[in-house]
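Shift notes (night). Ran Mycothiol acetyltransferase while the centrifuge was going.
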Amino acid sequence: MTQLRVHAPAETSNHLSQLRKLADLGVAADHNEPFGDQTWVELRAGRAWLVSTGEPKFTGAAAIVIPEHPDHPVVVELLVAPEDRGNGLGHQLVKAIKEILAQHAAEQQTVTAWSHGDHPAARLLATKAGLEPVRVLYRMALEIDRESFGDAIIPQGYSIRTFVPGEDDAAWLQLNATAFADHPEQGQLTQADLEARKTETWFDPQGFFIAEDAQGIPVGFHWTKTPVGSAAGEVYVVGVHPETQGTGLGKALTLHGMNHLASSGLEKIVLYVDDENRPAVNLYTSLGFGVENTDVMFSSRS
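Came back to this:
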């Protein structure tokens, strides 16, 4: 049996280069990032457990984020190297995850796990672990075949500018929390989370757009993301204040950011959206996006 190593949160930052190499193998084979942005933030900050197999080269790994507040769900993400699949490593990792949760999670704390790409093997693991599918996230994509996707018609009384790091942080965090009050992850971002993203190589304030009302108050935003070396740019997050919904501001912000990405020499634009967010899915479909991938969240509480 392959030896498993459990790395406590204080130790995980020492193994991130190994985990990144494993993740890159997963991306090459599955065309999906196996670990989400927030998971990397938690790992770097020493707030997540890590279970690994293989040394010095990881053949499998699982990241486990256990929030201190018992009402906030545990998040689990797992990857087995493509060449090592089918040998039971996934089951061994799940067993180790259960042991960590039994010792460190609250008794009734909900456990969630992502399957990026909805792979049959991941679905089987989740089912055997007693988890059920509760959320579907689409990755939609659009090939860039023009310099512009059309004029971003900004509703009267609003204007769009770029984000100013430091000066806009507090107002943006408040707007983000309001716009995503019902969102299980996005609406809970903190200053520390924002600071962590500012240190990422892909962070560029020139691709982070803020919509203001006539009083200069931020009421919407479109944060784009282009990973270094990638041919695809991302509609990372689009949000508007609830009071502006129905004005066309969200579409204007979306087009504004898309045009920015189109002028950056990229090949396509991608985005992620919940399947139940039909207004957003319909908007992106009307702009030419199509579903190219599906992520599924499994949960211990259906």
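The chain has a mean pLDDT of 94. Residues 141-296 form a domain with the Aminopeptidase fold (CATH 3.40.630.30).
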